[in-house]
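Hey, I was hoping to borrow your eyes for a little while. I've been puzzling over a protein and I'd love to understand its fold better. The fold is given in discrete form, as structure tokens running alongside the sequence. I'd be grateful if you could look everything over and explain what you see. No rush at all, and the record is pasted right below.
>
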Amino acid sequence: MPKFSYLVNRLNIVDLDLLEHSGSKRIRTDEDIIKILGLSAQELYDSPQKAKKNKYVWSIRDVKHFPSGVAAMSEIVLFKLIKSLTEKEGVIVTRNTTEEGISRTHPPSADAIAHIIVHMGRHLVAIENVHQITNSDAWKTNFYNISNKASTNNGYCSYLDFEDKPSADEIFKEFSLFEKITRLKIALRLPNPEWNMATKALYEKLKKGNIREYMQDMKSPTGLSKEITELPYASLAMAQLGYKDGTVTLEGVKDGKLDKKITGAKAEIRHIDMEKSLTSSMLNSTGNSQLRAVQAICENLEQVDNENNK
């Protein structure tokens, strides 16, 4: 039987331009994050999506908050991200015949449901690996739409964003294959709440300078430093933790030839030692069954890069 699997993302806080948005509050605390997630579970903030023949709506529902010490040592938020079918174009059945047309449903039928767990202590996110949802980035776009509307409509000038957290060695594995790095392109976001020894100095500079996002395009024809104490390494370490926007581009010399590599685009996929359909059913329930499933996922999630964050 297949095991339960999930994608690992990092929760990032993105600030909007005060000159373009009327909100005056910034999302900064865990209380703000939990509030926004709770507010997002309203039809008002649902996000429509139009495909070639069908129309869908994405929703957040059933947000549940577990205080510290219940599901894990830190606070945990569990919610459902739902993709629902609202219109389907094709052959429809009329009173006397069949014909080409559009079938509409209200309330809409849930096409797919993914449970999402937010570990507030580390701002790590576990997204249930449901193929109809995680087979493309549409879920991230629609989560952004929902989060953005919920936050800005409630006076915030920030929104919540999920960023792919690469597997533990992905970015540095590519980094190590280059004999010389001549260019590094990367967009970083201020770490909160997690950093490690390789990123500490860079984190403190960003925090002291009140820098929320840091766009970098480093170049050196003789090769950028690969020392652990220098900026290129620290930037890659921060991206490895998931505090980034998009991918990382490396250019340089590999195996004696010029090469270019784009990495960091895929989230790490992890598994727990529980059967997939049973775990989904437990998450969809209430009481002790749901709690046991959340605890099992949180225990696994807490192992992500844990050895690097001592």
